[in-house]
Every structure is written in C-alpha cells, then in structure tokens.
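Posting here for the record, re: manganese (II) ion.
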Amino acid sequence: MNQSLTEIGEEVLKILKEEDRFQVVTHVFPDGDGIGSSLATYKLLKNLGKKVQVHIDSTVPYQYQFLPQAQVLTERVLPEVRARVLIVLDSSDLARIAPCTQEMEEFEYIINVDHHHHNSQFGHLNMVDPGASSTTEMLFYLFWEKVEIDYDMALCLYTGLVFDTGRFQYANTTQRSHHMASHLIGLGVNPNYVFRNVYENQPPGVLDLYARALQRAHFHRDTGLIHSYVKLQDLQDHALSFSASERVIDFLRSVRGVTVAAVFKEYEKGYRVSLRSTGDQDVSKIALSFGGGGHPMAAGFEWHGEMAACLMRLQQEIQRQLKSKRDESQ
Ligand SMILES: [Mn+2]
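Prediction output follows.
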C-alpha cells in the first residue's frame, strides 16, 4: 500500500526525534536548495541535541557562505560513532550524492527527501513530492507546527526556496511557496539580505566570464535551442568557482523565441550541461535521455565527448518532443 506523504512525514519526524546519530548529504555540485536544506536539517538536529555529520563535495559556493554554520559543510570530520541514519536531500538518486563517510550498509535507515520527478526511491523512507518547488519547501511543511523553526533554519529554508523558484518567478512557484516565505519572514528573515548575498555578491571576474559566454551564444532558430559554453580556463583566469557561471543560462533563456537554453560547462571529465525550458519542452526528459535528470523546466547531464555531437543529439531530442506534441494534439 502506498503511504501518503503526510504518513511518511510523520515517520521521518519520529526518526529525527528518536534516533541520535545522523549523516546529512545532498547532490554533488550543490545548489541553494541542496545547501539550504542540508543546513536547515543540520541545525534542527543540533537543536534536538543530536550528533550530526553534514557535508558537501566542494567548497561552499560564495553565494551561500553567509548562511549560518556554512563552514561545517566542508569539515570532513569523521563522527566518533557511526551514524545510524542517512538523510539524503534534493537528490534523485544515490549515485548523485557526495560520498558518505561510512559504507551505505552501515546505515539503519536511509531517508530520501526530494522533489525531482524521476526519483529512484532509494531510501527506506521516501518522501518525494514533485509538486513541491524545492526540498526546502518540503522541509518547511514537514517541520511547521511540529518542531521549532529557529531563525538560522528559517534563513536556510528561505534561501533554498528563493533559489529553486528563481526568486518566485519559475513555474514551480505556488501559493504554498509564498505562504512559506511569509512565515519565514515572520521568523525574522530579511528578503533583501538574502537577495544581496545570493545574487549581488559576485566576484568582479564574473563580468568577464559572462562577456565571454554571451559572445559565444548561438541561437538555433529551427529548434529554438540556444547554447553557449564556459571553459575551465575562463574560471581559472579569474580564480572563479563553478557556481560563478550559474546565471549565464538566465540570460540565454530570456531571449524571445527560445524553447531550450543549454550551457556547456567544461570540467576535468568533459562537460556538465545545464538545460532550461521556457515552457513547452520538458528538459528533464531530454536530460534523462543523456543519462542525467532534473525537473521539467530545469535539468542537466554530463557529456564526455565533443560538444558538436552533443548539440546535434540535443536538437534531435527537441525535434522528437515537438513532433510527439504535434501528434498528440492531432
Ligand atoms: Mn531542489
């Protein structure tokens, strides 16, 4: 029998209250939602007097260094006792998470809290809600009126919400998202403080990075695909972290006539490709066909070959979706 989300939520809370040793992780290349949900969960467990190990697989992106306790994310101290519970946040699959500090078999429970459509249900408890804007939104409603949400938690939850809803502009923004924001502001969160830190705290080198990336943009009018790329060298020239190129795609998708925006970010093993839809295309399906994943409006995958070959396949996938849409409507 399928348990309802409310029932699963109750079980999750029971474990958070009854167990005492936890490890918290999120996906690799963590974003605002992954980091916000990890830190909010960490703070809650600390407030409950638990032993918690939380970490990410990179340095903390500069956008999130203002968050309370952000420094604990990179302290890979091994817990003196093994954790019994693993909490995985904002990750569609175990293959996508930062490496844990102990073997998977050593966890008594794996709790999976996520809002991706294609979640592999890898946990003992799977709290998966594709209707939620973000993992932080799911956590807020899990905690709300059940456990105390302090200011630090509120700030982390709000930051994840702002990030995943594109500052309340994306199609995943709902009345529930705004209701949550309203409550968090009531707990003392200052929206301008979050905005300034996440969006207006960029190292000067990003201007050159954007200039290069925008100059390379190419609009394929027949499919509505627009793409550009960021080289490893671009980041190295200005000592920028991977998160510095995050917003290039926002410029691309804002162009009239674009259906899908793609940014190829070079890294040691090839490219990490980010995809955004402007509405009609489900980019999570496209990403899935390349072995990646995500949401209908925002997804990504990794590519280990030539960019040109990938672009060709991307356009084929877009055309395939356009065709099946046309066939459906006939
Ligand atoms: Mn998310």
